[in-house]
Amino acid sequence: MMNHNGIKKMVLFAILAATAIALHFVEGLFPLPVPIPGIKLGLANIVSIVALYLFGPVAALTILILRVLMTSFLYSGFSSLIYSLAGGLLSVLGMSCIWKLREKGFSIISAGVVGGVFHNIGQIIAAAFVLRTSSVFVYSPVLIITGIITGVLTGILSNIIVSRLSTVLHMY
Amino acid sequence: MKKLDVILIAFFLLIAMVLILWINASSNEAGEIIIYKDGQEFASAPLNVEKTVIVEDQNGGRNVVRIENGQVQVIEANCKDQICVHSRPAKKNGQAIICLPNKVVIEVRSTKINEIDGVSE
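Predict the joint structure of the above. Result:
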């Protein structure tokens, strides 16, 4: 018989992954009116941050990979898989570093910023590989700046969600 | 927000600024455009001659590239997002218009000879 904690974790991870997929879909309904490829709010990244601060890097990585695979197969198709994966992996990697340093004075907002910026950098690198050109890097300054802005927003939101969820999780 | 958060944000902004300056410094006007399709060079043309290039593939992807007044833009495309059509016209060295769905890259390259090439014997 699976122990109680194992089942609890599995269910929580599944709920988080489902939330991330739903957020990704919702975000797709409202494309931002800017003529630059790769700019979006990064709502699904909130789930990665929440998973990281509640359950640690392994959980965040697991949920990210589940989300990327599911959204690619459900909505956007295989060609977007490499972009999502490159952006997502780099962003979880960077956020995990910030999470490790959280005692040193980096708050969850830093995690959001690093997540947003690294996600965009990952997408540029993927685009450079797919299109076999370095000219995509002309977009890097604007993608770094939007990564900062969206990162602060997702960081603030994640902070609220983490503090509320952690009190709920301790009740069970 | 803590102090280190502000420092981190300032650090990323600094990188962005440096990149902007670097990209602007390395770009100069007058040059040619090169159109890449699926990573292969598809066509090239000088920027100072008016011309329309149609980039098509067997999958139905189609982008119409227009060179006019020393700048290049995509005036028509059948991709879903239409990002390439709404992109600002490119004219400086290093600028590019990219259509991810159709895998088309239009790149502006300087035709000036680099003076640093060939230093001494």
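Confidence is low (pLDDT under 50) at residues 114-121 of chain B.
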